[in-house]
Amino acid sequence: MQAETGWLEYYQAAADRVLEANPDSTIELMEVGSFDHIDTLDQTDATNPDVADLFAIPADRLTNMAGKDLLGALDSHAIAAAAGGWDDFDAGLGGLFVVDGEYLAFPFNIETLVVFANEANAEAEGIDLTAPVEMNDIENPAHILLPAFDAWFGVALTNSAEIDLLAPEGDGFVADLSKDWADLEPEKQAAIEALYDYWKLNADNNTTLFDADAGRGYIDDQFTSGNAGVLRIGGPWETGGMRERTNDGADLGIYNIGQITVAGQPLRHWQGGWGLAINPRIEEDPDQVALAEAMIAEIVNPEYAEDLFRATGKILENATAEDYLASDLDEVDKTVIAAVIESFEVSPGRPLFQEFGQVWDTWMNSVLSWNNVKPANVEAAYAELQAAFSAMMDNIG
Fold this sequence. Notes:
The chain has 397 residues and is an alpha+beta fold. The chain is 43% helix and 14% strand.
């Protein structure tokens, strides 16, 4: 089984528990980084002896790997029953990991974005954090630091209005932003108008937030205690950096994604995460598959959720916020975990089809074009989005 260096102790403990019930079996850990392992598999094939029988993959690699026959089928419902903790397995990552009717990965951990706040800056700037903060209401652009030109963050805004940047329909795809402005539903128009107003607020104040090169530095600087930055969104893996900019966490607040609203609607990111997958070369040996599935069930055993988080930083889908709250983790970790779980539950599933890859540059280039075009109103700004997404749809065919 493939394991990151930092995961070895946790994985070995899980393997020891599995071997207690299967004393005639052998489980060997292969110490290798997840992405290095995936690259080896992707560049060779499933028969390569340097590829493990059981390994971790990020959700966004699933479809590509499935298309190359690099993943074996799992009895995911049986694994979920053995591990425990799911009320509706297919409603979350479990359902996303299905390709052509087969479960090709099992949910390892959940990932989504949350809201970080600098509460000292909020107090100094007069921003009330006891209720969600509306993007349309801010007067200082630093009060909400959202690099919306980057689709990884921008989808939190589009998802709030259920704007489909690209979605399957029948045998093809549709994209809301290829429609004429007049054909967009009012709530989708309102979200685009809020984005345009936010861009204009930054442009009028000469910030560098809508700058692909300088935007990140601007956000980090403004979010530091003593400046004007109040709210930003990010992943739980960024918590350490947030602590550094908030007096070692003394000024840090952590909220679910809905702490920021756009045109009255709470932000929503994606249900993302990692899965555990098996090598298709073992599918012909039922005993090997059964052992791999037993190992998966033990890795995600919610009884050991705290140990898994300490070892890997991964949050289980089948463990509750109450489980983590009752653990010995520190308060910041508990708050982050609770915010991730809350944000995950209200967010749609991450698009895993390969065609979505074209959305990234299409969105970024069209939003950033406003810096040069300087649209006078939202309809002129939308025309740039529509032209880019219409071209994308022509390319997809």
